[in-house]
Amino acid sequence: MGECIPLPTESESGPAGIQSRVVLYHGSFRALAGLGEEFDWRSEAWETLTHELRHHLEWRARAPDLEAFDWAAEQNFARAEGEPFDPAFYQSGEHIAEGVFRIDDDFFLEQVVSTLPARVEFDWHGAVYGASVPSGLSLPLFLTVEGVAEPPPGELLLVLKRRPALLGLLGFDPVMRAQIVAVPV
User: Fold this and answer.
1) What is the extent of the structural domain holding 58?
2) Angle between helices 41-61 and 26-33 (to 10 degrees)
3) Does one domain contain both 43 and 8?
4) What is the pLDDT of residues 128-177, one digit of tens each?
């Protein structure tokens, strides 16, 4: 929808040395507007513009927060499309609480386990839920959760992972995915 393009300058020293051009792509807005009448192009344009301006300001401040979030959003899109993704991407999203992360409309609840449990329990909006974990899977495991009261606008995912270890630096374990139905405990 838009892009913040860094521009070369004669002097790269200090914040004044960092300039950029913000570009909004008319064709992207037009294509989305063609999908339905409920598309609010003014709101979407404002959201895109402020996002790209934030990129510019963070580059000037040499703060990479939005870059990390954009990368996490790309990884989350790959996950949703069934493509390969970095299993720790969600940690670059918005940190809501201990072990809870948000990327756009999706929420990730992280649990560190030593082995794959037969059953999991987790908190969501002040209620405790439980669910059986499908057998034959391995860690790391992304479980799409159904059945909670007050579901998020996107997906609720329970991420089961091993405690980080030195051998984990050598490469990624294959990521497993499954769906569970949670019930109040």
Assistant:
1) 2-63
2) 140
3) yes
4) 999 999 999 999 999 999 999 999 999 999 999 998 765 555 555 679 99
